[in-house]
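Raw record, unedited: Glycerophosphoryl diester phosphodiesterase
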Amino acid sequence: MAESAPLLDKKRETPLPTFTFAKDTPHGKRPQAIAHRGYKAMHPENTMGAFKAAVELGVDALEVDIHLTQDRVVVLSHDPTLKRCFGKEDKIVDCNWEYLQTLRTLKNPQPMPSLRDLLEYLASPGLDDIWVLLDIKLLLPSLTDAMLGTKAAKKLDDYADDLFRAIAATFADVKPSSRPWNQRILLGCWAAKYLPLCTKHLPEYPITHIGFSVDYARQFLKVPRVGLNLFQSLMVGPRGTWLLREVKRQKADRTLLFWTVNEESWMKWSIRQEVDGVITDNPQKYLEVRKAYNKHETISHTWASWKNILGWHWIFMKRGFSFRVKHGYWVDVQKVKKNLEGWISHKS
């Protein structure tokens, strides 16, 4: 059996995320416009101001990052600490929601929203077509704790379970508009060892693997319909070309997204690769590029851009071992299968 051959049968597949596929336009299919942490180029990231501004631009989707507070509220933040965006030394996991609500971003002061806040906004009339890529941020152990399986590592596994449980509870508590949340939410999973938590707590929701390693991403092709959301710079080169070809071969069952694409030339390159979505800090620029894109145009990149890409390849090659130890070496396909079987039996 080929390494990428699916190991689940058709009755136990994860949901198909048709809403994330490339859009039909008068000029052919084009990747969807996905605002990275909202309209981050113009507003404080992961704030309601950034999300609303992106929606007003006409984006197709929002990419948001989530963490869990001490009192089990799912909040929107990229970092596990408050230092960069709010100027506080605290960790989010050590704070209660009541305290976090009092904080304001350092730039253009805005509060930190909760996942509930975003869902309630998206349930408003006229926003049914906007979907969300949920980048589920997990707290990772040190390399030593991960290798030894210490109590500290086990505690972070418990945190991950609590986070997925809280996400599911939030979806259940907020009434959607005409489209159910599982047709508007794509779960972003970085870690192989936590993929079963998606199917345990949120079996009706489609999944994509978020990552930067071509080799690590390949194992997710063993699970039908799990898409890939990959760091665009690491997709340039022979291994990236191979993975693109393999995903396209399974295109009816998977989506392919690129992050974070901010240069105009790489936006055009991404469109040419026929991916399903482009995640960008500057959705206005991408919408303009997508509208004016000419498939016959010669695409050229600067030397600085190529140097940057080579640098990223070197950095993540060095981080590969540590990443696998902390995130899990392999997808537990049998556990994913068992969770889906339980969901199907419950539905029946």
